[in-house]
Design goal:
Layout lengths: L3 E7 L4 E7 L5 E5 L2 E5 L4 E3 L1 H13 L2 E6 L8 E2 L1 H8 L2 E5 L2 H8 L13 E3 L4 E4 L2 E7 L8 E5 L2 E3 L21 H12 L6 E3 L14 E3 H7 L9 H12 L8 H8 L31
Parallel strand pairs: 3-6, 6-8, 8-9, 13-14
Antiparallel strand pairs: 1-2, 2-3, 4-5, 4-7, 10-11, 11-12, 12-13, 14-15
Helix pairs in contact: 4-6
Bound molecules: fe (ii) ion.
The site of fe (ii) ion (FE2) has 6 residues, from loops.
Length: about 290
């Protein structure tokens, strides 16, 4: 089975959303839709979603599934707004509960998780006439999931394009050794498998790319190509992660994405707020 894949790159966050379908008029899955969000004004917008909605309309697609590969830290999910306009079942890994518990002392996440469906390991499901599998890929976060739909593999942040390597493992619950095992498992799939990534940050001189193959990854991925050992990967990943900044949208993204794409509940005054926890560690030491 060779599904059609239409991809949409959000230049602000570097996120790539994908629509997987079996042709005009078929049932589709939308993977990792983006809700644009301006932190300074607290204003969401739907410019990214509008491009997805336009394609769905042009192709007369029926939205069967809205699939999240993980709880993204760099953008807000557009799943709820997409569902409101076109329907669909919002789904991710059942291990999202692990990520929610890691953030539960930071944010009030006592309400329902907001997803319509939580996949167990290797769970199979259908998208119209297409069969899909949710493959656990922990490491970047505990709840990362790849989706294998026909010959198309949607890897989330488990792999980037070969010249960019892999995603960071320093978020709560992340683990480089675990990511290495997840990657090697994906790289054992047939070499012709098409691989669609969730992000691209192209270096100067190359265009945005978001499709590669298992063969390309095994030959050329700068972090995990064949021949790179687990210990080499863990040492590289750990050192590199120490140099990375906190993502600009981390706190708004977590407050929305751990609720399945829903905004935080209203305060008593009827307004919704994003909360930013203050890191007070600089006050702990007294130099005198
Ligand atoms: Fe991510």
């Amino acid at each position: 089975m060779f599904p059609h894949v239409q991809s949409f790159h959000d230049a602000v966050t570097g996120t790539v959303s994908h629509i997987v379908h079996a042709g005009a008029g078929s049932t589709c899955a939308v993977i990792d839709p983006v809700l644009d969000y301006d932190t300074a004004s607290g204003r969401p917008s739907t410019a990214s979603l509008d491009r997805i909605l336009a394609f769905i309309g042009e192709q007369h697609l029926v939205v069967g599934w809205i699939l999240e590969t993980h709880a993204h830290a760099d953008h807000l999910s557009g799943a709820v707004e997409l569902k409101r306009r076109r329907g669909g079942t919002i789904a991710t890994s059942a291990r999202i509960a692990d990520v929610r518990s890691l953030f539960s002392t930071t944010f009030d996440l006592a309400d329902e998780h907001g997803f319509d469906c939580l996949f167990g390991p290797e769970e199979a499901f259908t998208i119209g006439t297409m069969t899909a599998h949710a493959i656990p890929t922990p490491g970047h976060t505990p709840a990362d999931t790849a989706y294998l739909i026909g010959d198309a593999l949607f890897v989330g942040d488990t792999l980037f394009m070969p010249d960019l390597g892999t995603a960071r493992c320093d978020f709560p619950g992340g683990d480089a050794k675990t990511l290495y095992a997840s990657v090697r498992r994906l790289l054992a799939l047939p070499e012709s498998t098409r691989v669609f990534v969730c992000h691209d940050y192209p270096p100067a001189g190359r265009d945005v790319r978001f499709e590669t193959t298992i063969a390309e990854q095994r030959q050329h991925n700068i972090h995990v190509r064949d021949g790179i050992s687990e210990s080499e990967f863990v040492a590289m990943r750990t050192a590199r992660d120490l140099t990375l900044k906190v993502p600009a949208l981390l706190f708004p993204a977590m407050q929305v994405n751990l609720r399945g794409g829903r905004l935080p509940a209203s305060d008593d005054n009827g307004r919704r707020y994003m909360r930013i926890p203050i890191d007070e560690s600089c006050f702990a030491a007294d130099p005198s």
